[in-house]
Amino acid sequence: MNYYFNNAMRLEGDLMSRGKEVKELREKMGMNRREFSDYYGIPYRTVQDWEAEKRELPEYLLRLMKYRAEVEYMMKNKS
């Protein structure tokens, strides 16, 4: 696992909420909410609600988003 996203990867049951994890992932990717929602094809309002913890983010979806971000990062920085 690459160090860049390693800190964003949390195990289920960690103290950090999923909403905070999404925000942390988005910020590490250097994106605002609009860019993040467009990148993943998720409505802007949904991302906003996840971060505000007004809507529940399924664990599997969070894992998929992290996986895609990690793969994209590795491909971009491939030597």
Annotation keywords:
5 helices; globular
Could you walk me through the main structural features you see in this protein, from its secondary elements to its overall organization?
By secondary structure, the protein is an all-alpha fold. α2 (18-28) packs parallel to α5 (59-76). The protein is globular and about 40 Å long. The relative contact order is 0.18. The protein has helices at 3-6, 18-28, 33-40, 44-51, 59-76. The chain has five helices and no strands. The model is unreliable at 11-15 (pLDDT under 50). The protein has a domain at 27-79.
Number of helices: 5
Shape: globular
Instruction: Return residue spans where pLDDT drops below 50 for at least 5 consecutive residues.
Output: 11-15
Report the end-to-end length measured between terminal Cα atoms: 16 Å
Our estimate of the beta-strand percent is: under 5%
Whole-number radius of gyration? 12 Å
Q: How many runs of DSSP E, i.e. beta strands?
A: 0
Order of helices and strands: HHHHH
Give the structure's gist in a few sentences.
The protein is mainly α and 79 residues long. Helices cover 62% and strands 0% of the residues.
What is the element layout, followed by pairings?
Blueprint lengths: L2 H4 L11 H11 L4 H8 L3 H8 L7 H18 L3
Helix pairs in contact: 2-4, 2-5, 3-4
